[in-house]
Structure formats: structure tokens, C-alpha cells
Amino acid sequence: MNLSAIDLNLLVALDALISEAHVGRAARKLGLSQPAASHALNRLRDLLADPLLVRVGSRMELTPRATGLRESLAEALQRVQTLFVADSFEPRRSSRRFSVMMQDHVAHLIVPALVNRVHSEAPGVKLDVLPWQSPASMKLERFRSIDLLISCSVNEIAGFQRETLFTDTEVTVVRKRHPSASRMKNLKVFLNSRHVAVVGRGLTEDPVDSWLRQEGLARQIVLRVPSYLQALQAVAQADLVAFVPKRMAESLAKPLSLAVLQPPIDPGEYQEYLFHPRRAAKDPASIWLRKLALEVGEQ
């Protein structure tokens, strides 16, 4: 294929058509009329010898070829854009906005310190903390909007690099006046107590229960909540037991009058990882933000 004969604006049109899967929405995104977007689609169909978008009932769907182009096209456009952007970043003069995603217990530990560091070095920079979604259930378009993602997942995420942020473990937490607090290290007492399970978005059960089942054990669950913070708030006001990350539990033990106890079985340790997009691996602004996040994690 002769690249000199190709209008590179078609790549921008292709990206919009694939991400929107709709000619009208793609036209609005590109600032074009719908006939102009339709014309671009026809040129792309001829160029790639593929229909790219096909009508199925009342809606348009991507062809397998278009779906396969989605991630590589985004990375290609990102590389092309970096050719025309100066390779520098001045934090104090920047007004860039970054999007980060992490679970609530990590945000509780990381976000306040990260905001303070960002504000100190780059007062015009803004952070958007996105609602947590399991990486396994996220669509490619969602990944493209994320600058940093923090997760304990040991699985690789396509298009992202991973670095260890910090190590944690899990502990048993009860309110200080819980009648069985002194006996919670006993396995039978622990399992027969009234537990709060944390079942986050995209999960069907608390990972703790999956782990216990592998050990041939089961606990008595009387309450399910979507976040660790809600679990600790419930424990603070009732005779319940939570099994939660240690760092978060210790940070809230005093304000919520909680007792943090060693569990009767060893949960081991796990790592929270910082994931960042490969496409931004050499972007000075992204490198700066990653450095701050890793420094906060070390603390």
C-alpha cells in the first residue's frame, strides 16, 4: 500500500467510527456533517476492503476487522500525535487533567497524599478518580480514558505496564466493645460470628470467601456491602466482623473505635500494582504522575 496516496485524516475518521459504531455520532465527534462522515466511511471501506460497520436490525455493528483494529489504531494515533508535541512537561504551568481508577480502600490511602503532592508541584493539574470497575469487565474504550489504574490483580492488562505500588495483607476487624473480640483468634469463634462480606462491582462473592472455601472453610455472612468503607462503618455500629485490608483498617481504627485483630488463619500478603498505558510510557506528564504515585505508595 502506497502511504503517500492515503489521506491520514481518514485514520481519525476511522477511530471515531469504530469508537462510536454510529455514523451520526462519529460525525458530531469529528465536527463533520453526516454526509461527509458517510463519505469517509465509504473511502475507508474501499481502502480496507471491508464494510467496517454493518446494519443489524435498527443499529450498526462493527465487523471483526473493525474490532481488531480498535486498540492498534488508538496506539497508532497516539504515536502520530506525539510526533507533533514538544517532548517536555512543566508541572507548574500545566493544566492537564488525569484520570485514575482504584478501589475505595486504595483511594482512601493514596488519593489525599497524591492530591497534596500534585497541588504542591502542579497547582493547575486536576485529577479525576473514576468509579471502580474490574479490569476483566472493562471495554477497550474505557481503558483508553485511564492514565493510571491501581489493582491487586496479578493478571496482565493488555496495553498496560505494571509496577508494584505497595504490599498489604488482611485482618479481622470488630468494634472495640464486641463481646467476642478477645476470642476472635479462635477459628470456630471467627467462623461462627456474624460477618460482613464485601462484594464489589463485577463480583459474585467476596474474594475472602473464595479463599476460605479452598481451605475447606465457610463463615456466617449476614450482610453484603459493595465497599470496604461501608463494611467498616457497619462493624463500628454493630456486633459484626469484617475481613479487610490491613492498611485501611489501621487508618480508620481510631476514628471508628475499631479493634484490629490478627485473623485465626494466615491470609498471606498481596501486592497493589500501578498499571499505566504503554502508549504513554514516554510521555513526560505521565512519567511525572507515575513517579508521584509510586512515591506515595512507598510511604
Describe the structure.
The protein is of the alpha/beta class. Helix content is 43%, strand content 22%. It has helices at 9-20, 23-30, 34-48, 64-83, 104-121, 140-144, 187-192, 207-214, 228-237, 246-256, 284-298; strands at residues 53-56, 59-62, 97-101, 126-130, 148-151, 160-175, 194-198, 220-225, 241-245, 258-261, 269-277. Strands 3, 4, 5, 6, 7, 8, 9, 10 and 11 form a nine-stranded mixed β-sheet that branches. Strands 1-2 form a two-stranded antiparallel ribbon. α8 links the parallel β7 (194-198) and β8. It is elongated. The model has no long low-confidence stretch (mean pLDDT 90).
Give a quick rundown of the structure:
With 299 residues, the protein is an alpha/beta fold. 43% of the residues lie in helices and 22% in strands.
Key attributes of the depicted protein:
299 residues, alpha/beta, 9-stranded mixed sheet, two-stranded antiparallel ribbon, 22% strand, elongated
